[in-house]
Amino acid sequence: MSIQPKKTKYRKYFKTRKLPKTSTKTHKLNDLTCFAVIAMESGYLNGHQIEAARQNIRRKVKREGKLEILIFPDIAISRKASAARMGKGKGKVDHWVASTSAGQTLFLLYGIDAEQGIPALHSGTNKLPLKVKIYQL
């Protein structure tokens, strides 16, 4: 099941959002065994990709530790059928995406050792279409 908002103010939105270049957000954590997945390029991640990465990471760590997802798909992407003629309004909402900027933290995993955490994050990031880095904080 894909991640999406439960309720929005409007059903459909304009495509007015532009991708940010870089992110200046930082996370200061006191936990010694913490791993972060950080995006190295800007792009869009849809709810299915985020959920697939989450499931893969949780499966590899055997549901130990704590996994935080710091992005949420809140941008609606609408699409009309390919065989539809022109006109008759905007298409229905097809999927939801989250815009990510370079340097933005996507996932945090803590409470687990390095031998189990780093391979789990590598297998989870294989599901994402962006270049990412795994940091040990």
Automatic annotation (TrEMBL):
GO terms for cellular component: mitochondrial large ribosomal subunit. It comes from the Eukaryota. CDD domains: Ribosomal_L16_L10e (cd01433). One of its GO terms (biological process) is mitochondrial translation. GO terms for molecular function: rRNA binding; structural constituent of ribosome. The keyword Nucleotidyltransferase does not apply. It holds the Pfam family Ribosomal_L16. Keywords: Mitochondrion, Ribonucleoprotein, Ribosomal protein. The keyword ATP-binding does not apply. Belongs to the universal ribosomal protein uL16 family. This is Ribosomal protein L16. It comes from Lessonia flavicans. The lineage of its organism: Eukaryota, Sar, Stramenopiles, Ochrophyta, PX clade.
